[in-house]
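Methods: example folding runs. The two proteins below were folded one after another, and each record is reproduced exactly as written to the output file, sequence line first and structure-token line second.
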Amino acid sequence: MSEFVQAAILAVIKRAPIWIRQDLTSKDLGARVRAEESLAMIIADAIRKQGELPE
């Protein structure tokens, strides 16, 4: 994994909303799935945006 991808993922995780953090550990499957899908979309967007930056 490239350094810029790792940096993008780490930045997203550091600023993840509390509801995502809580729902990722929820026993409620629906809440956990929503949190996982939301976090995945946020990470994908951050990687896409970082890839658009000039080097």
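Second run, written to the same file directly after the first:
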Amino acid sequence: MKSNFFLVNPAWLSVFQANNLDTFSALWALDIQLVDEPNRARGGWSEVGTFSLPMGGGEQQFYLKRQENFNCRSLSHPWRGVPVALREWLTIRNLSNKGVYTLDVAACGRQSRRDDRAVLVTESLDHYCDMDQWLEEHHGADVRRPGLTALGREIGRLHAAGMKHGCLYPKHVYFSTQDANTLRFIDLEKCKRIFTRESGLRDLDTLVRHTSGLTADERQWIYAGYIETCPHRWTASALEQAVAARVASKRVPGHD
């Protein structure tokens, strides 16, 4: 990965140019509305905020992630590492190439001098809502079954692409408010490669444990969808037992 680069999605280039945001330094200095307190770790910091740009008589909202010395090490970058935001960008690009849709990137870049800085701009997910909200607003098997089955399929596609989310809470799953069969995963910082069928179970286990009120039938709809698209052979009963065993193990003190 290059030490210094800046890219703008061609679809947004003219808009960013018109608002003088087509450089790394402009995005680094931009006043944004923070969505949470900055995360100070890894010897640096990371923050996420929103900004809007005029677009076709309205406004388009974006999320801007800025990081300084917030790096992760890898085999190819064992010492200084690479910015976590740029690893997320590479993951988004890789998954998109394999038909797993997450976030739409508008711009990204790195400025590595004395400090290692990174920016990542993504489009807001208009007409989407997180899983908890979707469940609150959708009731009955005729509505929930197609959506939860589609969720299972999408997790299976993620694993078929050789990746696991690693932190698949309901707040990281977004359903289209117009078509429940369309989903997106967000917050891909902890995505990792997987090589065995058991490695992907963490995503299912995390989702089940942190989604309150899922019935046994609803869990089975997720599993059924997963079996359709995952790269490994599972029977419905074997998958259900494997996830249940992981869930039970997390109730033991000392387990996450």
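Comment on the second run: The helical segments are 13-18, 24-29, 84-97, 131-137, 141-160, 201-210, 216-229, 236-249.
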